[in-house]
């Protein structure tokens, strides 16, 4: 295949739509799959790889790895990919991010340094528990490298402080598990940006994931020191991580002690994620899981816990992750006037089909898949979907998450087959969820717009096309 032209990764990347043509790479081949995809609507999953390498997707959907498929692919080959020089950039040793871990090429970065990424949204709802390598990543700083033998968790109390090793945590306490969602307050921010610009990463709908976390219950850890959380003095419990800002201050967060008491045995000092040691990006070796609460408080690389009369003084507690009304802008914002985000509001999203998807020719029905979740352990009791922009609704089928509706920390995945409006060439699919407190999502994003683009939980709308 030496006779074929060569293309750079950037050239391939620019061919990612029906208009430009859809190119993908596999090993060192470049393939134009535009016609193929249009003729085989069932094979639309391949579109996730538009402008990119198909290999990571094929490693997941490995049914494709057979000679017949390779043969079809070779018939679509248009060229070869230019060998990329792997020379390290000059000065790379000064790069504070040089020790960051390897990541799955399936993750879609919204920023690389620090690393922030979400999984392809269709893959997000394939499984109840998000596989570790697909779990969204939200880092504010370089990832610390921690040797388990050097690790210490310092817990400070009036009665003095005590430090626990990694082995102490794994061997001296009962193991407790909780299945819980972690969601960034900025999930679905990209919809808010369309109303008016905001400051923050341009997250789609997948800055959320669901995992089973195991470790030591916070209560047990404190009891070991003779401390009953019901009687502790102070107003807040503060958590600090090992990742540091250039001024040496660590990532930190706090929650009111009253909330810690309410959650009591559900707060986990975790050493396992889905049955494996926690991957570096997600807090190796130890992170805290505070179910039902915003991602920002689930401190990774946790090495300090203490009680305080005031909230964590970290930037992320005091000057970020707060809500404001839509008339507040950067000229008149007063961060001290607003309450820190903790338990999150009800949210849902359609993960399949995706925005601008081409449905099958003359399709009369569409299958929607997605997630719904609410903070504070409030279970999802109903998910409504519409295929006509919200004029008519039907209920989606909910997949039970096995948790009590009053302590529902995991998400609820759902599916629905919805008839399409007859004769329409395009339509807007909509989803909205209801939690056990009958909280509902706002119908539009305008009224909840805020300068940081947090808490973007309006009805989720996805426009799709129906070729005649
Ligand atoms: N903990 C530390 N130490 N440093 C961080 O940057 N990011 C927080 C939280 N814990 C962060 C952290 C934010 S804002 C979110 S949304 C979650 O981690 C993301 O967790 P994940 O990367 O495991 O998905
Ligand atoms: Mo976050």
- What class, by secondary structure content? alpha+beta
Q: Uncertain runs with pLDDT below 50, 5 residues or more? A: none
Shape label? globular
Over the alpha carbons, how many angstroms does the gyration radius reach? 24 Å
Q: Can you describe this structure?
A:
- The chain has 468 residues and is an alpha+beta fold.
- It is globular, with a radius of gyration of 24 Å.
- The two termini are 38 Å apart.
- The strands form six sheets. The chain has a five-stranded mixed sheet with strand order 1-5-4-3-2. The chain has a five-stranded mixed sheet with strand order 10-9-18-13-14.
- The chain is 13% helix and 31% strand.
- The protein has three domains: 76 residues, Roll (Flavocytochrome B2, Chain A, domain 1); 190 residues, Oxidoreductase, molybdopterin-binding domain (Sulfite Oxidase, Chain A, domain 2, Alpha-Beta Complex), CATH 3.90.420; 119 residues, Immunoglobulin-like (Sandwich), CATH 2.60.40.650.
- A hairpin with a 2-residue loop joins strand 15 and strand 16.
- It contains ten helices and 27 strands.
- The site of ligand MTE has 19 residues, from strand 8 and strand 13.
- The site of molybdenum atom (MO) has 6 residues, from loops.
